[in-house]
Structure to design on (487 residues):
């Protein structure tokens, strides 16, 4: 990062930054300076909320990777391109004259949160939920067991997971979890490659899936059909997935039709679709489609993992999973799964656990609630830490879609603005903002990637994708990203 001389712009004395000969940002010494940690949806929406509200507000976004957009790039399934349209809103925010993006900055390592607090009037932590909940059962580290987080990172080109190379040699895969991420993974495992090859899935994942021997995917959940956590849209996609057929266990739907009238509205449609899929005989055309299907999926209910069992031929590899059979205590969404004492072993060479992401602490100076795995906050104000705020999954825990994240990020922006107005947040002193941090980076040899650097990566990825009829071919390696960014 290079910091250049002060300029006179529109008659006002402002500092100007130049990077690689390009004027990046005109900044006023008297501006309110806020930085956001994390360049995912929460980071961009928080920045948007702040910039729109005040003309004197400047926001810098620090992102660990050289590429922006967090889980929109590395989480959202490649066959859901429409979800990624939010990128154009984020791009507008990043290109705003009062917003700057600094990728390849690992907060907690390259710069501490305290240093950011010193340089900015306020710091908003929006670094998401990059950890992973574990099953806590014997055998979960055997080869062939993956977290959905790593598996999704693999097919979406997250550098940390791009070499995962999951073993897809077995007929049956078990996915633990009934949420949308579990359904994404099931769909990706069973989708015809002809569909996937037109998406931005990475080439290595596409090649591996083309060779995959997985024909049967069981999605296993602790509780019953009325408690599943997926949305009706995701389930419908599964039901209609070309080349596949559902194979539900009808006994697991006992009493569900009777309970339907008590089920709240959005869940009602979901439950009706499940009931229809499990119990009704479809029309002739659909019957014919299902007969021809070569791949099968199934939602299994009332089962919790007890142990992952190794193969007799290779004690390091998974051969099956032992499940406890549950019954429900209570009803509706609050029902609890209680083991009946019965167990069931399912043969499978691939297990993917989709039981939740979790946030991790990145800096010992920041309060962190290890039980809830969030930064403790009230309406986005980090407790007992003046000038520190949080938004997105770090604030709420890892639930909700991008729209939910947008709302909670706008809420945090509003909280921060209220604190400025009420004087709770002291903004009386001038802050050095990115200039102060830039000086630290120079000393430490940290070279951030700007948004226009990212646009070079974007261009290169789009070019590589076009050659294959895909929207983009993602760069998988951080070093390569940096090389392209700095050409
Ligand atoms: P993230 O998106 O995780 O962004 C956090 C950012 O912080 C990342 O870019 C990360 O690199 C950065 N960061 C981490 N640590 C540091 C650090 N130390 N310093 C600097 N930066 C750091 N929602 C939908 O609406 N539709 C979908 O189809 C959909 N699909 C999903 C699929 C999956 C697999 C997952 C997990 C989620 C999906 N979601 C979907 C939900 C959506 O992705 C989230 O609501 C949203 O991404 C949360 O935003 P966030 O900014 O809090 O976290």
């Amino acid at each position: 990062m290079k910091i250049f001389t002060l300029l006179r712009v529109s008659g006002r004395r402002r500092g100007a930054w130049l990077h690689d000969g390009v004027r990046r940002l005109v900044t006023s010494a008297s501006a309110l300076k806020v930085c956001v940690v994390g360049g995912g949806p929460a980071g961009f929406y928080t920045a948007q909320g702040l910039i729109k509200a005040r003309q004197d507000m400047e926001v810098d976004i620090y992102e660990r990777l050289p590429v922006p957009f967090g889980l929109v790039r590395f989480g959202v399934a490649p066959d859901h391109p429409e979800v990624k349209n939010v990128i154009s809103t984020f791009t507008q925010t990043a290109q705003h004259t009062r917003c700057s993006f600094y990728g390849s900055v690992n907060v907690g390592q390259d710069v501490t949160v305290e240093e950011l607090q010193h340089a900015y009037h306020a710091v908003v932590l929006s670094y998401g939920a990059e950890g992973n909940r574990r099953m806590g059962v014997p055998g979960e580290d055997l080869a062939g067991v993956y977290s959905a987080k790593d598996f999704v990172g693999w097919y979406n080109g997250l550098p940390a997971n791009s070499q995962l190379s999951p073993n897809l040699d077995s007929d049956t895969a078990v996915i633990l979890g009934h949420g949308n991420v579990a359904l994404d993974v099931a769909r990706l495992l069973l989708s015809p490659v002809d569909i996937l090859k037109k998406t931005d899935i990475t080439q290595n994942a596409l090649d591996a899936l083309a060779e995959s021997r997985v024909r049967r995917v069981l999605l296993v959940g602790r509780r019953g059909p009325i408690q599943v956590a997926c949305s009706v849209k995701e389930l419908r996609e599964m039901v209609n997935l070309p080349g596949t057929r559902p194979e539900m266990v009808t006994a697991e739907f006992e009493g569900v039709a009777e309970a339907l009238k008590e089920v709240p509205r959005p869940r009602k449609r979901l439950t009706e679709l499940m009931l229809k899929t499990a119990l009704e005989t479809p029309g002739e055309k659909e019957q014919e489609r299902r007969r021809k299907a070569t791949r099968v999926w199934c939602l299994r209910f009332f089962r919790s993992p007890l142990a992952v069992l190794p193969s007799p031929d290779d004690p390091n590899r998974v051969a099956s999973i032992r499940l406890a059979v549950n019954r429900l205590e209570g009803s509706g969404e609050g029902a609890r799964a209680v083991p009946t004492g019965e167990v069931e072993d399912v043969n499978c060479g691939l297990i993917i656990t989709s039981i939740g992401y979790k946030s991790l602490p990145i800096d010992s100076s920041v309060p962190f609630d290890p039980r809830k795995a969030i930064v403790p906050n009230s309406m986005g104000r980090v407790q007992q830490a003046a000038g520190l705020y949080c938004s997105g999954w770090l604030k709420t825990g890892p639930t909700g879609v991008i729209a939910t994240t947008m709302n909670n990020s706008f809420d945090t922006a509003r909280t921060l603005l209220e604190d400025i107005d009420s004087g709770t947040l002291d903004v009386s002193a001038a802050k050095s903002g990115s200039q102060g941090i830039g000086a630290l980076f120079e000393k430490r040899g940290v070279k951030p990637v700007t948004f226009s650097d990212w646009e070079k990566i974007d261009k290169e990825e789009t070019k590589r994708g076009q050659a294959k009829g895909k929207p983009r071919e993602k760069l998988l390696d951080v070093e390569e990203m940096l090389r392209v960014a700095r050409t």
Summary: Residues 17 and 25 are 5 Å apart (CA to CA). Confidence is low (pLDDT under 50) at residues 1-26.
